[in-house]
């Protein structure tokens, strides 16, 4: 798994990158938890998601947001981190011009950044938001959410309470043309202590079903003239 350094908006960014053997393979970008609370690209959930996509033939990248590890710059409360994520996607796409589609997976703070990236990049066709925090971060920009995806959280999460995540899910489920899948890991806290395998199993099942052409949203009803 090559270590890479590429240019970001605030200096160099450090990542781990695994190209697919297929020139036109989809791209997956994995975004880590909050940089000021110990979040890095080596977080266990981020690491496992990276391998999950890699094993399914994706060209895969995880990287450290600005100010973490060997990534230059300083924490920027989300705005700069979103620019980092966009630069990371640009960098991978420059190496894989034949790749037409992309997935983004984010955990905690990374889920918030990932959903913002989704709004900016029409080539992102699927997302995974793990333990998003709508109680802390504003998700109102998802109007409408452009792609189908998975939202997954633990029912013992005190950092992102279940009722807040449910509120976000219900709001997104009212939108036409996309399909939001919501999974809850019983007994899991925000860090999925002792539950990472269960979490990964749910993510793998979701990804496999999407890649098999399942979980397709119902077509919008045609208007009668």
TrEMBL record:
Pfam families: Peptidase_S15. GO terms for molecular function: hydrolase activity. Residues 17-138 form the Xaa-Pro dipeptidyl-peptidase-like domain. InterPro entries: AB_hydrolase_fold (IPR029058), Xaa-Pro-like_dom (IPR000383). This is Xaa-Pro dipeptidyl-peptidase-like domain-containing protein. The lineage of its organism: Bacteria, Pseudomonadati, Pseudomonadota, Alphaproteobacteria, Hyphomicrobiales.
């Amino acid at each position: 798994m090559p270590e890479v350094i590429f240019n970001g908006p605030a200096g160099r960014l450090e990542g781990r990158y695994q190209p697919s053997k297929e020139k036109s393979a989809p791209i997956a970008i994995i975004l880590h938890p909050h940089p000021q609370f110990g979040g890095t690209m080596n977080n266990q959930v981020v690491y496992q998601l990276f391998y999950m996509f890699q094993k399914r033939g994706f060209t895969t990248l995880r990287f450290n947001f600005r100010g973490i590890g060997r990534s230059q710059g300083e924490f920027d409360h989300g705005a700069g981190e979103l620019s980092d994520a966009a630069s990371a996607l640009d960098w991978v796409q420059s190496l894989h011009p034949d790749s037409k589609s992309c997935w983004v997976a984010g955990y905690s703070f990374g889920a918030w950044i990932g959903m913002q990236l989704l709004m900016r990049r029409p080539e992102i066709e699927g997302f995974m938001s793990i333990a998003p925090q709508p109680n802390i971060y504003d998700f109102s920009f998802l109007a409408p959410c452009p792609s189908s995806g998975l939202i997954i959280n633990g029912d013992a999460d005190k950092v992102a309470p279940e009722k807040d995540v449910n509120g976000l899910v219900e709001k997104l489920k009212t939108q036409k043309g996309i399909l939001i899948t919501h999974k809850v890991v019983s007994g899991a806290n925000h860090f999925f202590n002792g539950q990472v395998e269960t979490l990964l199993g749910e993510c793998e099942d979701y990804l496999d079903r999407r890649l098999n052409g399942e979980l397709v949203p119902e077509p919008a009803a045609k208007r009668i003239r």
